[in-house]
Fold this protein.
Amino acid sequence: MNASLLLDEYRARLRALRRRRSLQGGENPYLELMTLLVGAPPGLSAPLDLAERRRELASLFSWAIPNARALEVLATHAPLLECGAGMGYWSALLRARGVDVLAYDAAPPGRSSKNGYHRAAREPWTKIRMQTSATAARRHRERTLVLCWPPYDDDAASYAVLRAYRGDTLVYIGEPDEGATGSVRFYRELRLNWTLGSTVDLPRWPRLRDTLMVYQRNVERRPHLERDRCFECKRFIPTGAIGRCDWCFECRPSALALQVGKHRVEYVQAMLDAMPAAQRSVIERSPNRIR
């Protein structure tokens, strides 16, 4: 099958799924579509544009792909509390299997809601309650906390939720060891005060390491002693910040700086001079340039 025919099949399946509003027990259409794309011959990867297909499917389903083993492990830890549930795909699959799960999101996706991570302009796959993750976690200590792909630079989606939670079991779905998910403080809290039990490898897009990890809270809590400082003046800066503090940036501006998400990335003149001309030209014309 060539790339054009494969894309036609993929798009036909996707159109049909976009009209669906619920899932039945045993279904997992996200996994089926991902397998169709990733299982294509290597020569088709470029024309299929897997990075774009991933963003497209993540917007409609979830940023992590469940498999049967992951759902089985989650079921053994029910009742569950999924915070930051997004489209509610994982919760929908669990509910279709008869698992007790509550799903919360501060901004449930839908036609009347703006959710930057799920722009499918349709209602979630299952009922999602509107509430911040920290508030929901604080209310349900009797349930196992489930966090699926919390953004890597957002304490409120991971660290703050874990600190608010008073239960003893966490199921974390994302990348281990400070990957593309979870904030710096979140990983520090896990290392200090939680113990990793079982893990389940998940279906993975290229270059990702998605894993389901089950943690148990330690009996004694240890405080965070590690703090981050500005590289230049050594003042304390927010944990997870990149580069220098705002004061140093204003007093001694770098030759060029870009805004990357919540972070500022700076380039000194020597770095710019050492770059190939084409690369430097792209950076200098970047729409994210702030200096």
In short: The chain has a mean pLDDT of 90.
